Amino acid sequence: MIIKVGDIQLDYERSGEGEALLLIMGMSGSALSWGDPFLDALRSDFDVIAYDHRGVGDSTRLDGEITILQMAQDALGLLDALGIGQAHVHGISMGGMIAQELALTAPERVRTLTLGCTYCGGEGSALAGPDVLQKLTEAMMSGDRVRAIRAGWETNVSPAFVVDDEAYGRFLAIAERRPVGVPVVMAQMQACMAHDTNERLGRLSMPTLVVHGTVDQMLPVANGHLIASRIEGSRLEILEDVGHLYFWERPERSAELVRELAAVHA
Length: 266
Fold this sequence. Notes:
Layout: E1 2-5, E2 8-15, E3 19-24, H1 36-43, E4 46-51, H2 68-81, E5 87-92, H3 94-105, E6 110-116, H4 130-141, H5 145-156, H6 159-162, H7 165-177, H8 182-194, E7 208-213, H9 222-230, E8 235-239, H10 246-249, H11 251-265
Parallel strand pairs: 3-4, 3-5, 5-6, 6-7, 7-8
Antiparallel strand pairs: 1-2, 2-4
Helix pairs in contact: 1-11, 2-3, 4-5, 5-7
């Protein structure tokens, strides 16, 4: 569905029943990238809202640069357009950076905050290693879309999960159904590299969960420990032998964690 948000349009999907849960996807992903197993596990408890960032799907075209703060304002604008005063907010990777800015900008709009496999910038944080970035960049610039998707799969899941052909088939189908252009991915990457909430996270006081896999290649697990240390009272959930897309590898557990956090708020 398409909805007007300020002077742009955002493509979103809404399903389930319960309190509103806003899902904010990461770099190069779409609303479909959450995967049905994770979404299905949430729909019985939440009014689940997933959307596409500018430049993705049928959302407004992205021309030029964008910042994490601008994308956080888009997310808040989506809540406004849908008439939602408060929502549980769950962001992963770049989406987790957006969720941080959203929560800092409008804390009264966030019932609970889940920050998955993400990054806060500043001292002690760590982005993907040069070998991972080189592999992804070479694959994207090759012009071979299947190679780029496969490289994304191999760097986003654990070694144990990468051999799951059925899961990869679903991942490939989603990426082919709603492709994200290289210029959009590069603009999102620049936004991530400029992100820094390190010294501001201490202002957050809503119930917060930080989730990270121990074999995350995209954003090493040290980031999860750092973020949790910056937010007083937050809960840190470390998933052993799980990669960046933890909600693909452990969909039931990931959904259960969101439900548990919502229960704390209730």
